[in-house]
Amino acid sequence: MTRRARLLAAMACCLVWTVPSSGAPAVAPAKPQPAAQADSPPSVDEIQNLYTSGDYKGALQKISRVLSLKGDAAKSYDRHALLRLKAESHLKLRDTKAAADAFSKAAKEAPDEATGAEDTASETVIKRSKNLAFTPKATKEKDKPAPIDVSDPEKRKEAFAALLAEQKAELESRAKAARQAKSLPPILEGLKLVGAFRTTELAATGQDTQSRELVDELGGRAHKLMAEALEDMAETVDGVEEAANDLQEVAVPLRSPTGRGATLERTYKRAGLTTDDRKDLNRVIADCKKIVPTCRELAKVLGDNGGKDFEKLAEYGAEVGNKAHKVLTTRYDDNDYSRMNRAGNRMRRPVERR
Known about the structure:
By secondary structure, the chain is mainly α. The protein folds into two domains: 44-206, Serine Threonine Protein Phosphatase 5, Tetratricopeptide repeat (Alpha Horseshoe); 221-342, no CATH class. It is built from 13 helices and four strands. The chain has helices at residues 3-18, 44-52, 56-67, 72-75, 79-92, 96-108, 113-128, 153-180, 184-205, 209-244, 275-302, 307-329, 337-342, and strands spanning 133-134, 148-149, 247-255, 262-270. The strands form two sheets. A two-stranded antiparallel ribbon has the order 1-2. A hairpin with a 6-residue loop joins strand 3 (247-255) and strand 4 (262-270). Helix 9 (184-205) runs antiparallel to helix 10 and helix 10 (209-244) runs antiparallel to helix 11. The radius of gyration is 38 Å and the shape is elongated. The N and C termini lie far apart (134 Å).
């Protein structure tokens, strides 16, 4: 076979393998590969094992992933327990700021008041600690108290008890001043301290016996003073509203039926607000803006121990303030007197003021 013949034969063989036959594609399509499944969220046991083994950074990574879950995917996890474990992990890594923040968030997710109190007390002693050690303030009985390791959950209970003793000493002096006070501010300050004391008492002892007695005494006085003040404001608003809606007789000029000249027709208009009325209403609104948030704050810190009474008082204060605003912003000069008269839809005659 000549060189040319061998070359032509080789080319023919190449054409057999590269030219598609019967319209089929030259290269078979690749089979679709199944999409890689996303990793399932870590289990609680997996997170706990990481913490127990000392892999606190790994535990925090898994916890953060689970806490970011939404909807049905998050329902199988105890968010409060995870936030507590997050706080403990941060403590093991000596990150007190992150630990305190995690305990603060855990308190909002707590299943009951006593559990939330432990979270709040933990946040407090951690913020007070230095190098993970909480040092109680010196007292007459113990001038140099030993520091307490707050990274140990068991020893942290000792810190709660020490904090409770500190708050009790401060509260006793404030409570004495509040008992003798005839105005509201000292009583409110005492109540706020009672709220913090109650939280620590629940965390340290599981009960609120001492704080309950103080709440019954100071809370009753504060509630009475604020309730009486709101009643006076409500009466003021009602009086201003009634006076503003009193009808006054006026003469309205109308064109004569004959088309010549004008006639005067009697009708009525509302009196509206005086300068003093506006001052009174603005004062009521300003006072309600102070009382309402104060009552809500007290309701929050006192919880079941008298908190509901202050929550109701806050709602009443909001109602009084909103009515004062409505009376203040009402237009009292928008009457069409002639239309009312001619339509036979005259307003009622003036009423005597109470």
